[in-house]
Amino acid sequence: MPVISRDEVAHLARLARLAVTEAELDVFAGQLGVILGAVARISEVAADDIPPTSHAVPRSNVFRRDELRPGLEQQQALAGAPAAEEGRFRVPRILGEES
Amino acid sequence: MNTELTRLTAAELAAKIHSREVSAVEVARAHLDRIAAVDGGADQGVHAFLHVAADAALASATLVDEALGVGSAPASPLAGVPLALKDVFTTLDMPTTAGSRILEGWRPPYDATVTRRLRAAAITILGKTNMDEFAMGSSTEYSAYGPTRNPWDTSRVPGGSGGGSASALAAFEAPLAVGTDTGGSIRQPAAFTGTVGVKPTYGGVSRYGLIACASSLDQAGPCARTVLDAALLHEVIAGHDPLDSTSIDRPVPAVVDAARVGAAGDLSGIRIGIVRQLGGEGYQPGVQSCFDAALRMLEKLGAELIEVNCPHFEYGLAAYYLILPSEVSSNLARFDAMRYGLRVQSGFEESAEQVMAATREAGFGPEVKRRIMLGTYALSSGYYEAYYGQAQKVRTLISRDFAAAFEQADVLVSPTAPTTAFPIGDKVDDPLAMYLNDLATIPANLAGTAAMSVPSGLAEEGLPAGLQVMAPVMGEAVMYRVAAAFEAARDADQGGPVIHRVPESEVRA
């Protein structure tokens, strides 16, 4: 059974942009270990020569007519924004100090 | 309060509204009164609804009455019939939260295609129903707004993720509901509440405006108290949508006709496959005996029963809990605190990355975080082939199992869920125990095939169990036919519909 350490959970949380708490790290490490232990049995299946399925009902080359259709107005797009200014999304600084 | 109206089926209500025997406004008001009396809130009552749109519902019903009053034909066979909409579909005039704090109070700038079709059909939308956060869960306990309770026993869960939609039906708050089914979120709640729930073929109903959980698995579908009502709603919401590139561009199967044919009660010539892998160990004895009784009834209706072997189904749960979290970890990256939804920011010196991490920490509940991290793990280099890649291959093998089974049988059957409704709090801290609820429903999502749950009877402690009927891609007609035939025979045998035995909900003065 794959054991997942506290440090690994902290790494995953960082990658996933989740500022998890110290207490959560312990809980998630235990739970994720149990879940990974259960799903690891997927490796029992001999499937080397089996093609993968990414989509249940495959479709290809789905086109639409190249016609104008109305999209969202600026005001509609900004209506749910946590902060907006001069018709644009207002966001926190993007670059870190070391950048 | 006119409780009589809330007991009728959607088909009966439509007939009365369209013949002007009752008005759509009276019908809407009866259901709104019922919601006010039994729904309660996070602390008590059924708590099926997160938002009730009383004014909009009455306004919509008024338009139906006005149109009928000047002699216009009804906009659809369900014009004026009330419906409860799962809070995962975007609605211009109602908040849309997907059961998450991160979207608390969000007003979407557009309607989902399902919402648009309901409006075009002049169906009265009563409000938005509770769900596990972003449809991740099997009990509705992972809603950020408190659990929905099961009308059969309010100390128990209604299943999930669409527990709100299912409980609204079972508590007679609405005769119709829409749900979404990624791993069983329509069918398992239907089984737990003694109602009917249908997962159409993947691509059968548009996903445009459906807040994504796992895009290759998500499928919207109809929920009702009878098979015919589900079929009527199916024909309203299904069909090709150019706004969803995975939408199937083929005619909608004639499910209403199929349900009517089925109700006549003859299944001779139909081959029904019993999936050997979906039953026995792990299935509650009462659930199993309801299933066995259903098989005897199907045989009496003239169907030929055969046993089929789907050897890879036992790996379905493992494949699903790798594929789903992987898609979730990608899909939920959009909740970045920049364009809509919650933003948690403590000062101007914080970077976008810090704001995003703090927002997601505050806005997502534990199950969502677990699945995002699980997916992040499964997709990371070094594990990708062993987990995600292997799961996709197993998905192919499950589809092949279905294909082989459907060469021998027209439909496949199993119990919908291994157990009946469990007590609130029982599994909420044990994710793996929660996942096992979806054992029998997951294969159809992985293969994209059609499947539905119809009440099979009462099992342990007088709680309902469900019969799952599974059909090939676009094979909905035969599925509805079998379900309707079974429903009619079971009602005749048991002296009425299963749902009529639900205890009366506690009414607030």
Protein model, in words:
Chain A is mostly helical. Chain A has a domain at 6-44: Orthogonal Bundle (Histone, subunit A). In chain A, 33% of the residues lie in helices and 4% in strands. Chain A has three helices and two strands; from the N terminus they run αααββ. Chain A has a two-stranded antiparallel sheet. Chain A is flat, with a radius of gyration of 23 Å. The model of chain A has no long low-confidence stretch (mean pLDDT 91). Chain B is an alpha/beta fold. Chain B has a single domain (3-313, 396-501), classed as Amidase signature (AS) enzymes. Helices cover 39% and strands 12% of the residues of chain B. Chain B contains 17 helices and eleven strands. Chain B has helices spanning 3-7, 10-18, 24-38, 54-69, 113-120, 163-170, 187-193, 227-237, 255-263, 285-300, 316-331, 352-363, 366-378, 385-408, 431-435, 442-447, 476-494, and strands spanning 49-52, 82-86, 124-129, 176-180, 196-199, 220-224, 271-275, 304-308, 411-415, 450-458, 464-471. In chain B, α10 links the parallel β7 (271-275) and β8 (304-308). In chain B, α3 (24-38) packs antiparallel against α4, α9 (255-263) packs parallel to α17 (476-494) and α11 (316-331) crosses α13. Chains A and B meet through α1 and α2 of A and α11, α12, α13, α14 and α15 of B.
Summarize the structure.
In chain A, 33% of the residues lie in helices and 4% in strands. With 99 residues, chain A is mainly alpha-helical.
Report the strand count of chain B: 11
Strand order of the largest sheet of chain B: 1-3-2-4-6-5-10-11-9-7-8
Structural class of chain B, by secondary structure, is: alpha/beta
Rough outline of chain A: flat
Largest sheet descriptor of chain A = 2 strands, antiparallel
Tell me the helix content of chain A.
Answer: 25-40%
Order of helices and strands of chain B: HHHEHEHEHEHEEHHEHEHHHHEHHEEH
> What is the annotated CATH architecture of chain B?
Alpha-Beta Complex
Largest sheet of chain B: 11 strands, mixed
CATH superfamily of chain B: Amidase signature (AS) domain
The secondary structure category of chain A is mainly alpha
Strand content of chain B: 5-15%
Name of the level-1 CATH class of chain B: Alpha Beta
Unreliable stretches of chain B (pLDDT < 50, length at least 5) are none
Strand order of the largest sheet of chain A: 1-2
Helix content of chain B: 25-40%
